[in-house]
């Protein structure tokens, strides 16, 4: 067969291969040269560079950078050492440290709260600080601040300031002065105007609960500093109190952080437990009704809270430790301390600073308020505990939160306590044993070879087929297309394919403290074969699977039912009112669905949410939707249905247009009722259109993370979490168990793959 | 069933006898059972100033006529004349903007379609595609919650009538057009309605089948003896099937009458041109002293002086010279005129000669302005026996005359008939 004259001709002109390569090369050149050119344009100072990482914003960042500039400008430092700050997002900070420093590429110094020290120490990220390098003598530090930076007697950081909890109180509701004792607050219940409460605070958080834990005499760890004592006597009794207080009207029904702040600012709370980051605004501030006070006594004794100490750490792999310590000492020293007190009202760390403060009372209102806030935090420090810096501390927050939530919701405390103890006990599970990777590697190689061979066969077959041959005839060949396709292909490979493969691969590893251990199918075994007693509890795979399936089925049923009914209702007026209907329909889709989820969460708010306001005649005021499984599930369901039914409605409307009107008229003449017409005439016509939509919709709903995470947040106690949000939590909220979460994702993927296989067979079977 | 029996039964000698023989047999059987009640069960329809409007567009106006019980009335007219709309108004699928429609004494205007006792056969048959033929036929009874036994019986009965036995478990898409039409008719029969409505049922069939089934439907209707309204755009169907025809054009009834009435005494030029194949030729000319002339054509007519449009059918143009000439050529020389053959159309039994007459002002359908002969508009035609047509060539001269007593005359501006042909007086 002779080649036609146009075969083999390459595309010419603007779209030729050459142009493509030139453009690609130019783009790469710009990308590569950008940094060096930018560096060249901005000269770097002389001397040793000390890099400092922080995650501060706003005024705190301004103050820090001003201090560092001051250091750089100091004539003793110019030309010898200068410090360069770098802001790093808070959420990723720890990760970045743990990844960069062991490789020698991280900062020399970083500013972090002390409670991460345990983890950082375990990762060998922090360097020891000799005690004589501290700007103040050890004894000069107020309270037990240095404990926060000590591990086994060695010091690893410079304290900068600390934060503790204290009381903001409403002078109008408490004319006799701030509450001295918890009993005072309990007595107030019932004597306040409706809608007001004696005390508000984020009662689901262990951090805000700490004054009561400490007041009851509880501690997080036992004497040895390792074993958990959080849920033992005497501290465990304090976990019952929030539930009792809520029932007695001492606490409001939905005690989350934003709600508490709102209540206090509206003047509906006599007192709020909060920290120095908070400044009341709104009505309570405009009327000058608030003041600060130390925490009330618990069981007759003064109490404090968990104290967080902010400090400067030295990197374990800093190349210039001497210079770095110089900078750190400056920051943590008297100059820095004074600046932080003056500009940010942050408590100083040295006893002498307090003496100075007492000796020179400020004249202005703002100054007095500042000193009061500092003093109440010192009280919190004196009677409280520096939050333990053990890495095991990270595991206590979630079970504590569960127990507090159970107490607030009025669920069985004993059972919730059991669960909490169990969760803690799992923290000390056996370390993963390394499994031989070689058999897995062999299987992988075989699979890869098979896959590549299949791919080549299919590509060969495809390029010999009609369409490809025709394309070649008209002058489109692969070589000229390559430079234009390459960026897209790379993007797909990097953003889609590689994460998929890496994720699947990660499921074969166990991740702990930044190191991955190959464990083969152990993750899957743990997920699919948990202890029998835990099989149907929340947070087990099967429970989540059941909830997910229930979630998907109910959603799809509702979407289709409401969508079809709405389509039938809209059908007569569709032609006339098409534009307004389209606008109304686009709105739910145009708004990003997480914003919708947040809107609905607000509507389900226990006190002021629109739902409870509308249902007030039925006694729904103050009803907390997220206390029980079926109400929380309903809230999620309502939100997702609102989001999802327009899709089904539009699909049905389109299908309805295709029904020949004569068939419907024949049915009318035959005497069929509306329901009979729907079932026998309309439904068979829309079924072929609905089936693919139902399949799509069910896959989307199965993985609907936004609604579950944002509306119910998985409450109560992770019972409304679906598989995908469970996977998220395992990865990011329960100790970075990436391997475990990846295994979850693989299971979800397999499940949906089977499902789509099954449904495509259904589709083909359609007559 | 033997072919002889089928032929005898149906009176047909074509393939259609097989189609319709079973129908007729079973209808006869049913007749015996219900004969005495049939005559009472079908009302006549009365249309009283019926009109239909969609927003500002008037689709039908002032439709008034009456049908007798059991009559086969055909609504005919060009596309868009409103005939289907009128039919659908009887069935209840369209609302009635003005006027009333009565079935017997019962006013149908506000009665829902299901309760009117009207059965309809749609142009596209409108079978339920997701049900088998059996389920399609049973559907009218199924929705009335008849017992399964009743449904089965009725389906079997209709299937026997229409010969649908082997098709009962098939789906509509597995059937041919003719079979689907029978199912559609069957579904209509199952309901035993009082009035039958057919909406162009033969339009979707091929020409051969159409010709056969046309006759068969007529036979069926005679047996059923129910009032039937039949809509078509094909005037041949109308002429074949109807007891009476209602001609519609642009929403206005042009004429109501028997096929013979419409053919021999058209009320206006529209009906004159619409009915009959080939169409009547309309010639515009002047009457002076009892004589009509248009160019070289002249004929003696009994009309007042003035401009008039003369209508003449092909069979009334007599050829006086040449092959196929008619006998009384010489005696009528006074009205003879010359023409030239412009085209020859040998269509079988007869042949048509298209004629060019000098100065003739012949009118085409839509235009009011006269078109000149020879510019492609309709021509005067004469008919000769089929074999004779082959003897003519284009350009041949020919002598013709018109039959004056069979000519129609229409008013130039209104188009209405001003004189009925004498031959039409019964």
Structure description:
The complex is a heterodimer of chains A (767) and B (426). Chain A is α/β, with parallel strands linked by helices. In chain A, strands 1, 2, 3, 6, 11 and 12 form a six-stranded mixed sheet that branches. A four-stranded mixed sheet of chain A has the order 8-9-7-10, with helices on both faces. A two-stranded antiparallel sheet of chain A has the order 4-5. Chain B is 29% helix and 29% strand. In chain B, helix 2 packs across helix 5 and helix 5 crosses helix 6. The radius of gyration of chain B is 25 Å and the shape is globular. The chains are: A alpha/beta (767), B alpha+beta (426). The A-B interface holds A 660, 662-663, 665-673, 676, 680-681, 684, 767 and B 91-93, 113-114, 118-120, 122-124, 126-131, 139-140, 143-144, 187, 191.
Task: Produce the secondary structure layout.
The complex is a heterodimer of chains A (767) and B (426).
Chain A: H1 17-41, E1 48-54, H2 58-73, E2 81-87, H3 90-100, E3 109-113, H4 117-122, E4 150-151, E5 154-155, E6 157-163, E7 166-170, H5 182-188, E8 197-200, H6 206-215, H7 241-247, H8 257-265, E9 269-274, H9 283-286, E10 290-293, E11 306-314, H10 321-332, H11 334-344, H12 351-359, H13 365-383, E12 385-386, H14 397-409, H15 413-425, H16 438-464, H17 466-473, H18 478-506, E13 509-512, E14 515-518, H19 522-528, H20 541-570, H21 578-590, H22 593-603, H23 610-614, H24 629-657, H25 661-669, H26 674-702, H27 705-712, H28 723-732, H29 738-764
Parallel strand pairs in A: 1-2, 1-3, 8-9, 11-12
Antiparallel strand pairs in A: 3-11, 4-5, 6-11, 7-9, 7-10, 13-14
Helix pairs in contact in A: 1-18, 2-11, 7-14, 14-15, 18-29, 20-24, 20-26, 22-24, 22-27, 24-26, 24-27, 26-29, 28-29
Chain B: H1 3-10, H2 16-41, E1 45-54, E2 57-66, E3 72-76, H3 83-91, E4 98-103, E5 106-107, E6 118-121, H4 133-143, H5 148-162, H6 177-190, E7 195-199, H7 207-224, E8 227-232, H8 235-241, E9 244-249, E10 252-257, H9 259-264, H10 269-274, E11 281-287, E12 291-294, E13 297-300, E14 306-312, E15 317-319, E16 337-346, E17 350-356, E18 361-363, E19 371-372, E20 380-385, H11 386-389, E21 397-402, E22 408-410, E23 417-419
Parallel strand pairs in B: 3-8, 3-9, 6-7, 7-8
Antiparallel strand pairs in B: 1-2, 1-4, 4-5, 9-10, 11-12, 11-14, 11-18, 12-13, 14-22, 15-21, 16-17, 16-21, 17-20, 18-19, 22-23
Helix pairs in contact in B: 1-2, 2-5, 2-7, 4-5, 4-6, 5-6
């Amino acid at each position: 067969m002779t080649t036609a004259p146009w075969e083999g001709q390459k595309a010419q002109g603007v779209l030729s291969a050459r142009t493509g390569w030139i453009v690609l090369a130019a783009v790469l050149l710009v990308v590569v040269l950008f940094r060096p050119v930018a560096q060249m344009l901005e000269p770097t100072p002389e001397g040793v560079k000390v890099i400092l990482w922080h995650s501060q914003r706003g005024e705190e960042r301004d103050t820090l950078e001003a201090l560092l500039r001051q250091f750089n400008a100091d004539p003793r430092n110019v030309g010898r050492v200068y410090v360069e700050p770098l802001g790093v997002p808070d959420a990723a900070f720890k990760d970045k440290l743990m990844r960069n420093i062991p490789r020698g590429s991280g900062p020399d110094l970083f500013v972090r709260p002390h409670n991460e020290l345990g983890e950082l120490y375990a990762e060998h990220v922090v360097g020891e600080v000799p005690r004589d390098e501290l700007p103040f003598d050890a004894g000069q530090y107020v309270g037990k601040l240095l404990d926060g930076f000590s591990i086994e007697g060695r010091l690893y950081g410079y304290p900068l300031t600390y934060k503790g909890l204290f009381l903001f109180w409403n002078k109008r509701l408490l004319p006799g002065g701030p509450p001295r004792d918890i009993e005072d607050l309990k007595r107030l219940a019932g004597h306040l105007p409706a809608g007001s409460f004696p005390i508000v605070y984020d009662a689901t958080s262990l951090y805000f609960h700490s004054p009561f834990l400490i007041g009851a005499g509880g501690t997080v760890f036992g004497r040895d500093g390792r074993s958990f004592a959080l849920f033992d006597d005497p501290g465990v009794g304090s976990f019952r109190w929030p539930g009792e207080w809520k029932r007695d009207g001492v606490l409001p029904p939905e005690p989350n952080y934003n709600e508490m702040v709102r209540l206090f600012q509206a003047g509906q709370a006599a007192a709020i437990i909060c920290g120095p980051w908070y400044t009341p605004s709104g009505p309570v501030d405009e009327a000058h009704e608030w003041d600060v006070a130390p925490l009330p006594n618990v069981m007759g004794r003064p109490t404090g809270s968990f104290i967080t100490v902010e400090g400067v750490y030295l990197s374990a792999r800093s190349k210039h430790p001497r210079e770095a310590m110089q900078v750190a000492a400056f920051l943590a020293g008297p100059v820095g301390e004074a600046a932080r007190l003056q500009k940010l009202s942050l408590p100083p760390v040295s006893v002498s600073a307090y003496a100075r403060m007492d000796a020179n009372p400020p004249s202005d209102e703002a100054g007095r308020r500042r000193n009061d806030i500092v003093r109440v935090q010192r009280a919190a420090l004196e009677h409280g505990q520096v939050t333990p810096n053990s890495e095991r501390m990270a595991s206590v927050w979630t079970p504590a939160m569960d127990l507090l939530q159970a107490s607030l919701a009025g669920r069985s405390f004993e059972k919730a306590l059991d669960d909490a103890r169990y969760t803690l006990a799992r923290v000390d599970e056996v370390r993963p044993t390394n499994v031989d990777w070689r058999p897995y590697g062999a299987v992988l190689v075989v699979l890869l070879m098979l896959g590549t061979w299949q791919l080549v066969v299919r590509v060969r077959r495809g390029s010999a087929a009609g369409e490809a041959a025709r394309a070649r005839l008209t002058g489109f060949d692969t070589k000229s297309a390559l430079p234009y396709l390459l960026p897209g292909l790379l993007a797909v490979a990097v953003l889609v394919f590689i994460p998929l493969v890496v994720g699947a691969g990660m499921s074969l590893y166990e991740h702990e403290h930044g190191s991955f251990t190959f464990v083969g199918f152990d993750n899957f075994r743990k997920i699919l074969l948990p202890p029998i007693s835990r099989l149907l509890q929340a947070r087990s795979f099967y429970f989540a699977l059941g909830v997910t399936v229930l979630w998907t089925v109910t959603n799809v049923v509702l979407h289709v039912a409401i969508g079809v009914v709405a389509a039938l209702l809209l059908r007569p007026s569709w032609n006339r009112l098409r534009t307004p209907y389209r606008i109304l329909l686009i709105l739910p889709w145009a708004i990003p669905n997480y914003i919708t989820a947040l809107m609905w969460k607000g509507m389900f708010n226990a006190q002021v949410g629109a739902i409870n306001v509308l249902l007030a005649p039925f006694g729904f005021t103050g009803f907390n939707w997220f206390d029980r499984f079926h109400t929380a599930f309903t809230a999620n369901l309502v939100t997702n249905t609102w989001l999802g039914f327009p899709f089904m409605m539009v699909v049905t409307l389109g299908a309805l247009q295709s029904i020949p009107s004569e068939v419907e008229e024949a049915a009318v003449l035959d005497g069929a009722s509306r329901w009979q017409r729907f079932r026998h005439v309309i439904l068979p016509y829309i079924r072929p259109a609905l089936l693919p939509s139902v399949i799509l919709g069910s896959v989307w709903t199965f993985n609907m993370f936004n609604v579950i995470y944002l509306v119910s947040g998985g409450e109560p106690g992770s019972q409304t979490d679906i598989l995908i949000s469970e996977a998220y939590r395992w990865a990011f909220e329960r100790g970075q168990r990436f391997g475990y979460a990846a295994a979850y994702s693989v299971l979800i993927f397999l499940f949906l793959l089977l499902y789509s296989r099954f449904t495509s067979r259904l589709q083909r079977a359609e007559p | 069933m033997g072919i002889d029996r089928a032929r005898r039964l149906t009176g047909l000698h074509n393939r259609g006898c097989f189609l319709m023989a079973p129908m007729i047999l079973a209808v006869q059987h049913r007749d015996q059972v219900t004969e005495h009640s049939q005559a009472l069960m079908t009302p006549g329809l009365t249309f009283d100033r019926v009109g239909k409007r969609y927003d500002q567009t008037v689709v039908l106006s002032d439709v008034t006529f009456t049908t007798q019980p059991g009559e086969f009335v055909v609504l005919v007219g060009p596309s868009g004349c409103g005939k289907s709309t009128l039919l659908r108004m009887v069935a209840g699928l369209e609302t009635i903007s003005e006027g009333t429609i009565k079935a017997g004494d019962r006013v149908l205007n506000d009665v829902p379609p299901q309760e009117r006792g009207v059965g309809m056969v749609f142009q596209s048959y409108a079978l339920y595609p997701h049900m088998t033929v059996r389920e399609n036929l049973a559907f009218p009874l199924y929705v009335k919650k008849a017992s399964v036994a009743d449904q089965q019986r009725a389906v079997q009965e209709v299937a026997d009538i229409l010969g649908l036995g082997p098709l009962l478990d098939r789906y509509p898409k597995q059937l041919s057009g003719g079979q689907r039409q029978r199912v559609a008719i069957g579904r209509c029969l199952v309901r035993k309605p009082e009035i039958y409505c057919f909406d162009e049922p033969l339009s979707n069939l091929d020409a051969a089948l159409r010709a056969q089934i046309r006759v068969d439907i007529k036979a069926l209707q005679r047996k059923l003896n129910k009032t039937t309204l039949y809509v078509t755009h094909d005037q041949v169907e109308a002429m074949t099937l109807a007891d009476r025809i209602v001609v519609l054009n642009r929403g206005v009834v042009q004429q109501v009458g028997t096929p013979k009435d419409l053919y021999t005494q058209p009320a206006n030029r529209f009906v004159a041109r619409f009915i009959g194949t080939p169409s009547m030729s309309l010639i515009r000319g002047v009457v002076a002293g009892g004589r009509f002339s248009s160019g070289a054509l002249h004929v003696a007519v009994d009309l007042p002086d003035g401009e008039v449009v003369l209508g003449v059918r092909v069979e009334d143009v007599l050829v006086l010279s040449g092959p196929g000439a008619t006998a009384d050529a010489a005696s009528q020389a006074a009205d003879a005129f010359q023409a030239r053959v412009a085209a020859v159309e040998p269509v079988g039994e007869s042949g048509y000669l298209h004629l060019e007459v000098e100065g003739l002002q012949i009118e085409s359908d839509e235009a009011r302005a006269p078109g000149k002969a020879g510019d492609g508009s309709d021509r005067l035609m004469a008919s000769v026996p089929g074999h004779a047509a082959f003897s003519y060539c284009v350009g041949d001269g020919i002598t013709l005359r018109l039959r004056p007593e069979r000519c129609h005359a229409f008013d130039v501006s209104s188009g209405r008939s001003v004189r009925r042909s004498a031959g039409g007086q019964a």
